[in-house]
Amino acid sequence: MTGDLKIECPKCGWEPDGGAYWQCTCGHTWNTFATAARCPACKKQWEYTACISHRGGCHAMPPHLDWYKGLDDWLKEELEEVEESVAVG
């Protein structure tokens, strides 16, 4: 992935610091951005991610993918590379 990718709350701009602030319904606590919102204990895939108010966030619950800024550009670059390799191959 490119260095242009940034993770921040789409509602307030809070940037997670890598801490384990998210808790699954199974009780496991982890950094949701380390696993793309999949609980490493029970494998539940979360569609929404809470903005952690006690760490400076706004307590919103936006879709997990909306937290990634620059993801569209990265995906476009990846697709272009795949298209080029298919055309050459």
Overview of this structure, please?
It is a single chain. With 89 residues, the chain is α+β, with helices and mostly antiparallel strands. The protein has one domain. Helix content is 20%, strand content 9%. The chain has 1 helix and 4 strands; from the N terminus they run ββββα. It has one helix spanning 71-88; strands spanning 6-7, 22-23, 29-30, 68-69. The strands form 2 sheets. A two-stranded antiparallel sheet has the order 1-4. It has a two-stranded antiparallel ribbon with strand order 2-3. The chain is globular and about 50 Å long.
Beta-strand percentage?
5-15%
> What is the ordering of alpha helices and beta strands?
EEEEH
What's the structural domain tally? Answer: 1
Mean of residue pLDDT values: 91
Provide a count of the helices. 1
Q: What fraction, in percent, of the residue positions are helical?
A: 10-25%
The Rg value, from CA coordinates, equals: 16 Å
Structural class: alpha+beta
Termini separation = 23 Å
Shape: globular
Layout of SSEs?
Blueprint: E1 6-7, E2 22-23, E3 29-30, E4 68-69, H1 71-88
Antiparallel strand pairs: 1-4, 2-3
Question: Which keywords apply here?
Answer:
20% helix, single chain, two-stranded antiparallel ribbon
